[in-house]
Write a structure and sequence with these properties.
Blueprint (H helix, E strand, L loop, with lengths): L1 H7 L6 E6 L3 E2 L4 E9 L5 E17 L4 E14 L2 E3 L4 E9 L9 H4 L9 E2 L3 E9 L5 E6 L1 E2 L3 H12 L2 E10 L3 E2 L2 E2 L4 E9 L7 E11 L2 E10 L3 E9 L8 H9 L1
Parallel strand pairs: 2-11, 8-12
Antiparallel strand pairs: 1-3, 3-7, 4-5, 4-6, 4-9, 9-10, 12-15, 13-14, 15-16, 16-17, 17-18
Pfam families: Spo0M
Protein name: Sporulation-control protein spo0M
Organism: Gulbenkiania indica
């Protein structure tokens, strides 16, 4: 009885460890690994095991902003099972990252010829929720490095050719829309570009949001000019995006 009581409050109870096969992936790719469950001092029933893809998003409270943990998707890894005392269970898993998963691979987000890394405040992690009957849920956290899609990297390089380098990246809670396309995860990512030099015709910063949808990607662009205020532009990178001169296209939209 004492062992059961202790296990119910987490002492000598079942433990979990999630091991990723690889932790650097593209949105839309498969994230796989194994969940290792080790039985404690007594048998315990696990209601279910969920893998929750998480990020942090900024929320505007009027006078200030705060960061909150936000789930991007929940993937059921197992239904009910029994963790026998002293037993080890290995559960393989594999699921596809949503195309809208925020990107945070700092090295690959860097403007190609710029010496400094951008400020990327975009943690993405996998939370393992081990729901044990009559006990506190066990937790595990594994960070994921999400690489930018090729379309993103092409625009980052094009901006640099125009004298604008990626300065920072973050995630905002809410929905972003560009034409008929909209984000669907309850948040959207913003990439902020700033002039590499102080002389850039009054252009102060450009923020862009990517909205992937199937084989297409909408881009929402907010342009901040000291003389004319904010301006907005939206366009779609379709299946033929590789053949487009994006330096010329962005220069036209920033003019």
């Amino acid at each position: 009885m004492l062992k059961k009581l202790l296990a119910s409050i987490g002492v000598g109870g079942t433990t979990v460890d999630t091991v990723l096969d690889h932790n650097a992936v593209l949105p839309g790719e498969v994230l796989s690994g194994q969940i290792l469950i080790r039985g404690g001092t007594v048998d315990q029933t696990i209601d279910h095991i969920d893998l929750v893809l998480m990020t942090e998003a900024e929320v505007d409270d009027g006078d200030h902003e705060r960061r909150v943990a936000l789930p991007l998707g929940v993937f059921r890894a197992s239904g009910s099972l029994t963790a026998t005392a002293g037993e080890e269970i290995v559960l393989p898993f594999a699921f596809t990252l949503p195309l809208e998963t925020p990107v945070n691979h700092v090295e690959e987000l860097r403007s190609p010829n710029h010496p400094y890394l951008p400020l990327v405040q975009v943690p993405v992690w996998l939370h393992t929720d081990l729901a044990i009957d009559h006990a506190v849920d066990a937790e595990d956290r594994d960070y994921v490095y999400v690489r930018p899609l090729p379309q993103m990297r092409r625009l980052i390089a094009a901006f640099e050719s125009l004298g604008l380098v990626l300065y920072s990246a973050d995630v905002e809670q809410g929905t972003a829309r560009a034409g008929t396309m909209a984000t669907s995860l309850g948040c959207y990512q913003e990439l902020e570009f700033r002039p590499a030099t102080t002389r850039h015709g009054g252009l102060q910063e450009v923020e862009i949001t990517f909205i992937p949808h199937g084989r297409k990607m909408a881009v929402l662009m907010e342009i901040d000019r000291s003389s004319r205020g904010d301006g907005y532009s939206a366009f779609v990178m379709d299946e033929a995006w590789e053949s487009v001169d994006w330096v010329a296209e962005l220069a036209r939209r920033l003019a």
